Amino acid sequence: MHRQSQLLLPTERQPPADAEALSHKLMVRAGLIRQLGSGLWTWLPAGWRVHERIVQIVREELDAVGGQEMLMPVLLPAELWKRSGRYGIDELFKLEDRKGAEMVLAMTHEEAVTAHVAQVVRSYRDLPLILYHFQTKERDEPRPRAGVLRTREFIMKDSYSFDRDADGLDESYRKHIVAYDRIFERTGLEWYRVESDVGMMGGTGAHEYMAPCPAGENDVALAPGYAANVEVATAEPQPAQPLPDAIDGELHTPGASTIEALAQTLDVHPSALLKAFPVVTEERGLVLVMVRGDHRVNEIKLQNALRETFRPAREDELAERGLVGGYMGPVDGVPLLLDQAVAPGRYVVGANRADYHAVYTVDGAEQRADVRTVEPGDLVDGQAIRIEPAIEVGNIFKLGTRYSEPLGATYLDESGTERHVWMGSYGIGPARIAAAAIEQYADEHGISWPKAIAPWDVHVVALGKDDELAAAEALAAEVEATGLSVLLDDRPLRPGEKFADAELLGCPLRLTVGKRALESGAAEVQIRRGRQTPEEGVPLRGGGQAVRELWESLP
RNA sequence: CGGGGAGUGGCGCAGUCUGGUAGCGCACCCGGCUGGGGGCCGGGCGGUCGCAGGUUCAAAUCCUGUCUCCCCGACCA
Prior knowledge:
Layout: E1 2-3, H1 22-29, E2 33-37, E3 40-43, H2 45-64, E4 68-69, E5 75-77, H3 78-84, E6 94-96, E7 102-105, H4 110-120, E8 129-138, E9 153-163, H5 166-187, E10 192-195, E11 205-212, E12 218-223, E13 226-229, E14 250-252, H6 259-266, E15 274-281, E16 285-292, E17 296-297, H7 299-306, E18 310-312, H8 315-320, E19 336-339, E20 345-353, E21 356-362, E22 368-369, E23 372-373, E24 379-380, E25 383-384, E26 386-400, E27 410-412, E28 418-420, E29 422-428, H9 430-441, E30 458-462, H10 466-480, E31 486-489, H11 495-505, E32 509-513, H12 515-520, E33 522-527, E34 538-539, H13 544-552
Parallel strand pairs: 1-31, 4-8, 16-19, 19-22, 30-31, 30-32
Antiparallel strand pairs: 2-3, 5-7, 6-7, 8-9, 9-29, 10-11, 11-26, 12-13, 12-26, 14-21, 15-16, 15-18, 17-23, 20-21, 24-25, 26-29, 27-28, 32-33, 33-34
Helix pairs in contact: 1-9, 2-5, 2-9, 10-13
The structure holds one RNA strand of 77 nucleotides.
């Protein structure tokens, strides 16, 4: 039993002036976290209890699929990162020790764990392995934000799988899906597993676990039976409005250098126009990418389609090839890449001459790729998608031999042939789970924890003086004896303040022991989610089991 | 990195334009009343006004530099 009178739980009536996200405001107000610098947060006792409850859920489910917990250092030799080719990452903190040796602070642990496996694993008999740890990650983020949602230092559960081949990796990946599905189900979050970008570093598959909430940094596209990060989502577009026959040939469109202006000038729907997006790649040079006027280029999908990185073309590169900013259209000598959603037909494009556009006919023979961002209402299997912001709370990724090759993680197979280990990496951010839960379930009075991750299961609030406090302590002890954790508010404060603090902190169940309880012999119950007070309270004496049963029925 | 905003007691803020004894609410400490939704009365503690330099008889206030934090965007292996 924890006594609130002795607990460091600094609640605040007002949120910090600079807080924007709901979880940020509430975590500070409820006394869970405090800031020390940009992106640097301390977990206070109550917040840390939440964090550790989440950690324990993750641990149990990873152990259940054969994961082995270990611990690797945060301070690492730079050498490993030079070998893997990741030393140049801007987010990587770099430093020297007193001897001048180059070190880095781990932003993740692929290098470290692969180096160990390279040393230790020699035979196919040593595989497969799933290794994991909970360890601090350091990332020099360009912009930390929203309390604990994006920080420069945070604890991540990262696991790594090591297999003999691609099939083995698939199996380890599948085990992680099982574990992760169970983890997020147990946390009580609303969550989705979505298809996600595998990134430029290769990889053969990736999913993200997303918790929808307003403060989310990602957008997910959702339809019945479909969930994908918009970075990779693909869907059938809504049909374009056909261009009226009256609009033809070259069009004088003074000043109409934006889609909006052009649509207005011509009095047509933006879907009858094509938007130009000129890029330059290493291999291909200048490429003119075009999407429908009512669509947006998705740079990640474009990069994946091109299979190489690109940058926006510079003014001089455009001028050199006869392309005119604001009035850009297909031109001889510049490869054209049309978005998949541009159906054959007539469209208005730039005439590559200031203040002029022209009608262009798409015949379907052009080079095409799916490079646009999906829009709400687009169809997947005939079902309209919606787009929601979400926090990424976990990810799973098939690495393949991305790290085993540079770091030399090999084994001998049955035939004595040396082969590279096939790897996967899998992350979960407990802090984000806590923040997402707050975002999803908080009301105007404060936090409402899912019961699996609440700092305490039951909050016993004692009102009044000695007799009430003694009764509250007795009840708290009975509740605790049923295996529930209890926070006892034994502070000599007025009821209003204590109730307000209890609702701010958000334990699933609140028991009030005051004069009324002494008179009636029953403590009043409040279920935090929904703030409902059942007609019947729980008996002051022998009420432990009743509380336990009530608690079992909560979300 | 681009744009915007802010640094004054633990929290939230006013004062800065127009230089002249550093203030308000909450919190905190002491005493009393009160006692089921942040109550009341009285008395207190607490601030080198982010930092450095300059102007001035005098700087929270004007000037220069600098640091930090937040928000939007870019970025996010």
